[in-house]
Amino acid sequence: MPPRRKDRFDEDTEEEPHRRRPLNAASAGRLGLRYIADLTSKDTEGITLVEPLEDGWVVDVEVVEDRRIPSSSDMLSTYEVQVDDDGDLLSYRRTRTYRRGTGAFGGGV
Known about the structure:
The protein is mainly beta. Helices cover 15% and strands 39% of the residues. The protein is built from 1 helix and 4 strands. The chain has one helix spanning 25-40, and strands spanning 44-53, 56-66, 75-84, 89-99. A 4-stranded antiparallel beta sheet has the order 1-2-3-4, covered by helices on one side. β2 (56-66) and β3 (75-84) form a beta hairpin. The longest helix is centred in the N-terminal third of the chain and has 16 residues, at 25-40.
């Protein structure tokens, strides 16, 4: 007889099945960055926000949309990613496009 799999609750041993650890802010941020890099095929600059939601996380990722010379003229975008507690992608969208160095509110740095 083959050995029993332990993928369900085993009443004989009272062991719980192996569960994934819930996401923390760092792992949610890394997942958001990877999703955007894969989906857009663009270079990511970094994570600008990681915030918990009731059933997951929202992550903002900065992306280089268009490289220019000089690099201070690069066009950047911010993408918002939502992942659930298991790390699965729920949604993503581009929320803002701007020239590098224009600051958070459109003015110079």
